[in-house]
Amino acid sequence: MPLVFLAVLISLGNLLPGIAIGASLSHQQAMRIGGQVWQNECAGTLAGLTSWNAGEDFASLGIGHFIWYPAGRRGPFEESFPKLLDYLQSRGAKLPAWLRSTNDATCPWNSRTEFLAAQSSARMIGLRKFLAATIDLQADFLVHRLHDSLPKILAAAPASERAALARQFDRVGRSAQGSYALVDYVNFKGEGTLATERYRGRGWGLLQVLEQMSASSQSDSAARDFARAAAAVLRERVANAPPQRHEERWLRGWLARVATYARA
Length: 264
Known about the structure:
Blueprint: H1 11-15, H2 27-42, E1 50-51, E2 59-61, E3 66-68, H3 81-90, H4 97-101, H5 112-117, H6 122-133, H7 135-156, H8 162-172, H9 176-189, H10 206-214, H11 222-240, H12 248-259
Antiparallel strand pairs: 1-2, 2-3
Helix pairs in contact: 2-7, 2-9, 7-8, 7-9, 8-10, 9-11, 10-11, 11-12
């Protein structure tokens, strides 16, 4: 059944009259999307639930590879793992004792070298078991994050563009495939609203993809339009990235990922 996937704030109805506020995805639908996100991030493996990728200065945890920075360190990308922990606790999940007592929910491993050396430690094994036991709630969190994204995107956009952006969001979310694309991309590359997530003044999040869609001709398939727009935004990101980051090494995988948005 087609799904209208607009955000949940009542005030949005006043901001964008004439655009309906739709229903959320069901838990079963969230689980299917969460399974695909897990596959995208770490091939659906249990080992992949606790990762620290080469070239990055943060741990990537759970089915969405939620970012967790070490103590005293913050990078340009939005940290999402502490928000996941808050969500899991709000849903009744019992965190491991050491995780509850971690100061300000900061990653206890200070580097990728430390993290990899600890893969067989009791703490890491316990963390992996906890993440494996809460996969269903992590899938719900992915949808929860998307619900929160549209108000942020509209607030960051010029007033003249908000209605067009919301219509594109709604258009993509009217199919199960489009809903997956929205959930995955906002987890993958963020909302696109943070000033720190810019190269040469240009972002690469969901906001920029919706802007790219609004500026392009539309086909009958919103999911295909979204996939094409996402690929264009990611290519622009790589072109604008500082040369020392060598982001071209990731582009092929990124494009393969967004290509899944266009498949039935």
